[in-house]
Amino acid sequence: MTTPTKMYLEIVKKIRAIIVADGLKAGDKIPSERELSDRLNVGRSSVREALRALELLGLIETRRGEGTFIKDFKEHHLVELLGTFILEQDKTKNDLLETKLEIEKSCIQLFMKKASVKEYENLREMLSAPTSRTDLFKAIVTIVDNSLMLRIWTLVNSYARIISEDNMIESGVLEELLEAMREKQAEQVIKLYEKHFTEIVDKK
């Protein structure tokens, strides 16, 4: 059975194929949502989600009242490269999620190394159960005050959200994790993290 995520990623690929087949280039207008829906024989809501993904990847842009256009992304080589990279095989998607996993573990370790008691309390105040994984790590990286790590994590997390849902953290898991972080039990924290936060793209 095709999952919703798998389906709209296939639509993304087909839209990109249409762009190539029609010989469209930067600045050209792409077919409308309705036309793409007809050509691909899929619902307009699915086309809309796929277009959002392409816009997030920096490949197209929507101009109010004009339509959707191919973006000149020569200045965004990283976006182009990563955008193409994650829409390919399951292994490359899992590579992205694995990279995100390692960045987040580094965030946790840096937090335990640098955070004061006050900053730990600030973290608890910023979170309420249930909270999302994104909210948890956004709070951690913000408190750590490492602007480069924040930028890298934000970029990788944005692409990860295209291929994997943002999980909500159960209150018990969140409390156990925060307490282990407060006690600076590094081994226990990483064990909890890997148990509850590892993401894998299912092979279909």
TrEMBL record:
Name the Pfam families for this protein.
Answer: GntR (PF00392)
Q: Name one GO molecular function term.
A: DNA binding
Tell me where in this chain the HTH gntR-type domain is found: 5-73
Q: Which UniProt keywords apply?
A: DNA-binding, Transcription, Transcription regulation
- PROSITE patterns, from UniProt? HTH_GNTR (PS50949)
In Swiss-Prot or TrEMBL terms, this protein is called FadR family transcriptional regulator
Organism of this sequence: Sutcliffiella horikoshii
